[in-house]
Amino acid sequence: MNDVIRLALDLDGVLTEHPRILAHAANETFGLTLPLHAFVDSAGCNVPLEIRRWVYGPDGPARRLRPAPKGRRFVEAARAALGTENVLILTARPDEARATTEAWLQEHGFPACAIRFADDKVAVARALGVTHAVEDSVRHATAYAAAGIRCLLLTTDPKPAGESPLIERVPDLAAAWERLLGAPDDEDEEESSPIRYRIVISDVIDAAARERLAREAELIDVDGQDVAALKAALRDADALIVRSETQVTREVLAAGPSLRVVARAGTGVDNIDVQGATEAGILVLNAPGANAVSAGEHTIALLLALTRQIPDANAAVHAGRWERKRFKPFDLQGKTIGIVGLGRVGSVVAQRLRAFETRLIGYDPYIARERFQQLGVEPVPYERLLAEADVVTFHVPATAETINMLDADAIARLKPGAIVLNCARGEVVDQEALAEALRTGRVAAAGVDVFPNEPAHTSPLFGLPNVVLTPHIGGSSREALAAVGEMISTTTLAALRGEAVPNAVNLPPASLQGPELQRLTRVASAAGRLLSVLRSARPERLEVIVQGAVPLDVTERVTAAALAEALRRWTDRRVTPVNARLVARDLGLDVHIVSGNADPALVPEFAFEVDGDDPHRVTVRWDRSEAGIMEIDRFSLERPLAGDLLITRHWDRPGIVGRVGTILGRYNVNIAGMQVGRHERGGQAIMVLNVDDIIPEAALAEIVTIPGIETAYVVSLPAAVPEPGESFGWSASRAAR
């Protein structure tokens, strides 16, 4: 195979993200109106050479481009499979961009590779004996094919009639790899090729979870305590899975430009900078409740170890000392147990302690009184709990409100001789103050499973005879690890596939089941995309008008999905539903949700509206089983928008529909369906045509010259509301008189 394949790779849009940010920057700096795809083929789009030199120069925006997902791995795998000498980068960037291009490739970890700069790529390719190319420009792909060079064209547009059979359209680099070298011979073999996700695992997780992940991803193990190694591993990672030992700081997050998911194999996420992840558009997952039984039972184990004095008695017997009279254990029956935090773990502790016939009191300002009653716990203020409890056990996350919740002042208010348990977070209890109280006898004993800094190599609690210490193993039972592993592995892969997941930390909780929510948010994304095509300039305000009985969390998810897709055309920043609201705020885009008629009898609708000089409105109708775009600019449609579309705004005059059809026929574009709408005869009207073929720019330019047509748009939307796990791509263009 090495003898027959010599591969030329385009750079912008193939090994980099879509270069729309370059068009944004050039337009803003020079007052131009370049289309967003201008730097997919800058020469073909007639971008002036001086603009190209600035874009790719030392201070130009090309330095800010991110690598394409799996771009570096594609180059590495191609070099390994074909030989280093048979892989080169062939770009139409000007030759003056050599230094900045090489620096960018090195900065992002691409392996050393031959680079050629030429707009006439075919001449260079033929001289170098290139047999295959990967491109995202139709012009260059057509030229390659005319020269007998097979070209893999990265696009989601359908193949038009008459296109060369040497051009093979593929949606991404993963598909390009399969077309180039074929699928692996052994389907069970773990491939490290570009067709797989890359997941970094920095702490030990369940073996079954690893197997599940390995079926779809390349797994990279790294010591989470080694920050340099962790950052290096994240360079082109899609996801990071951690437990409590790894600190996921902003610095760590910034090392993963392709990072989409950070998953905590456990409940607490205080070791993850959730705000930093949100700002970067990275989804944070955890496994709430999966280890609650384990952590709750570990709390009971520590309590019994202390009340029965088991560690000391065990050590004495092992040492050959029979000191039966020295030990004075006591019963739990009749004792008052104070539980701080009645979430999942605290509830398990309460349920177990009821069997010991204890009196249970609790403090949790976020739990309803009915829940206290269900658990048999008397709600009391924190001060009273400290004063009355024989045992105080903490089950709260580490927040600004709970850090040092038990400090020296709180210890002074404890019932003398109380026992303190902390299986929550090390920061909740001031260990210096606790150690002093244990030495003086103010606190009789303590059981501690967590420490402020882990792994803990020093602590004021070390060596104290009345303390039982364990190395944060409360949630580490075999059953808990299996449950946590199953939840995290399953939802991490689902999130990478673009599916809705129930355990997202930095998205609102979802009241809808995953498949239904996914269908709705994907249609909302399509609506956001269409809105950004209709209104190409970023607006100052976006209104989301909601009709019908729609839960607030559903509205928020729908808004985030539509906003994220629209912002991808309105800004060059990385935007996902996770950070869409933050990006909008930073850009000065006011997003306002308006609640209309909440009558449950109404079919729910979401109208996305921008006003100002160029007002537009796109409406999604959702009848629970189906969702679709059913209105554009207040023109109702008979059926949901889907597929490849031509949309015109025009005056209702005879002959317009026919003239549009004639132009499309002349360009061999087949019309598959049509919808028209108007408010009154002779007034403003809309026409939506479904087409089977790509509409050339020249055809679009002709259409907008028809008298009576004001604007025409070409947009590609999902062919149908996708089932869970399916994906789709986008394309769009606009022409106006």
Description:
It is a single chain. This protein has 737 residues and is an alpha/beta fold. The chain folds into five domains: 7-181, HAD superfamily/HAD-like (Rossmann fold, 3-Layer(aba) Sandwich), CATH 3.40.50; 197-290 and 482-496, Rossmann fold (3-Layer(aba) Sandwich); 310-469, Rossmann fold; 507-635, 2-Layer Sandwich (60s Ribosomal Protein L30, Chain: A); 642-737, ACT domain (Alpha-Beta Plaits, 2-Layer Sandwich). 33% of the residues lie in helices and 20% in strands. α12 packs across α14 (344-354). It is elongated and about 105 Å long. Mean pLDDT is 90; it is low at 184-193 and 721-731.
Brief description of this entry?
The chain has 24 helices and 29 strands. The chain is an alpha/beta fold and 737 residues long.
Topology:
Blueprint lengths: L6 E3 L10 H11 L18 H7 L15 H12 L4 E5 L6 H10 L6 E4 L3 H7 L4 E4 L2 H9 L3 E5 L12 E4 L2 H9 L15 E5 L5 H8 L2 E5 L5 H7 L5 E4 L7 H5 L6 E4 L9 H6 L3 E3 L6 H16 L2 H9 L17 E5 L3 H11 L4 E5 L5 H7 L2 E2 L2 H7 L2 E4 L13 H5 L5 E5 L8 H10 L2 E6 L18 E3 L8 H19 L17 H21 L6 E7 L4 H19 L9 H7 L3 E6 L9 E6 L5 E7 L4 E6 L2 E2 L6 E9 L4 H11 L4 E8 L5 E8 L5 H7 L5 E9 L13 E6 L1
